[in-house]
Amino acid sequence: MPFVTRFAPSPTGFLHRGHAFSALTAWRAAKAAGGRFLLRIEDTDFTRCRPEYEAAILEDLAWLGLDWERPVRRQSEHLADYQAALDTLRDLGVLYRCFRTRKDLLALAGGAPHADDPVDTRAFTGGPIAPDEEEERLSRGEAFAWRLSLAAARDRLGDLKALTWVEQGTDTPGLKVAVPERLGDMVLGRKDIGAGYVIASVVDDALQGVTHVIRGEDLVETTSIQRVLQALLGLPTPVYCHHRLLLDARGKRFAKRDRSETLAAIRASGLSAEALIAELEG
Ligand code: GLU
User: Fold this and answer.
1) Residue 80, Cβ neighbours under 10 Å: how many?
2) Which of 17, 159, 214, 269 is the most buried (most CB within 10 A)?
3) Distance from the CA of 202 to the center of ligand 1, in angstroms?
């Protein structure tokens, strides 16, 4: 059976130890299975992605000793593929325009977010609005997001609990049931920036023949949504491995915004890749 896995970072910041662990985990799994390891640059959000971050990703991974197939797929060069998937979903009647801003959603969710405990606003989108109001807002040129309607998805697919995936290589392997309700009606695209990574990633995993998605457990809820998208778009479901997340000395997840902890800074400090790998995998 073929084994194809990938590391799919978004160049919205420098990679940190957590990314190194994730890339290494996927790369080692590919080597162990005699399979293929792909690198994919998920740069559809041109408001946040920067070329210097992409350059640093390539340097960091090479420094770690990883190798990957060429050419590297850069999502910004394939936007039509993701737009086509959005169009298909819209034609199926499972997307709706949401005009609520993040501020509106926060107010509805009950207050300002705390940095460590952001309010999850996704359950407060209010669903589709009346056609005449929508018409009026569109004519005023108001910004909107395309959200996946779970209710409409349920109408098409039936009980979403029938959607499952196989989890491997984690502490809790087995058949997992999708619970997309946790994230609610998720944003898949925006009027200003087009398709987001949730749909682009699922389209590319299918297009690139990815058989094993190996990524951090912070994305397990996204997997539920992506499982719904696979069912709606008729795409295959890969095996998933949601590996544990590395924590920093304070027990917090590494974050791209913490510059001192980036792989670029670690490289510059003179630590060897071998020493870092030993620390990550120790
Ligand atoms: N591009 C996503 C990120 O950097 C990861 C998507 C994935 O691995 O499926 O968070």
Assistant:
1) 11
2) 214
3) 10
Residue range(s) defining the domain that contains residue 50: 1-77+247-282
Q: What is the position in ligand 1's atom list of the atom closest to the CA of 218?
A: 10
Q: Number of structural domains, the chain?
A: 1
- Atom from ligand 1 closest to the CA of residue 7: 8
Would you say residue 277 lies in a domain?
yes
Q: Is 204 in the pocket of ligand 1 (CB under 6 A)?
A: no
Element (H, E) at 37: strand 36-41
**What angle is formed at CA 204 by the lines to CA 201 and CA 205, rounded to 5 degrees?**
85
- Looking at residue 104, the DSSP 8-state letter turns out to be H
Q: What is the pLDDT of residue 111?
A: 63
What is the distance, to the nearest Å, from the Cα of residue 196 to the centroid of all Cα atoms in its chain? Answer: 9
- Taking the centre of ligand 1 as the mean of its atom positions, its distance from the CA of residue 133, in whole angstroms, is 35
- What is the predicted pLDDT for the residue at 8? 98
Cβ within 8 Å of residue 52, ≥6 positions away: none
User: Is 66:55 a contact under the CB 8 Å cutoff?
Assistant: no
* 3-class secondary-structure state, position 96: strand
Q: Which residues, given as ranges, of the chain have pLDDT below 50?
A: 115
Tell me whether residue 125 is in a domain: no
The reply to whether 231 falls in a domain is no
Length in residues, the chain? 282
Task: Choose the residue to mutate in 197, 203, 221, 245 for probing ligand 1, maximizing ligand atoms within 8 Å of C-beta.
Answer: 197
The model's pTM: 0.93
> Is residue 86 domain-resident?
no
Which residues carry out catalysis?
Answer: 256
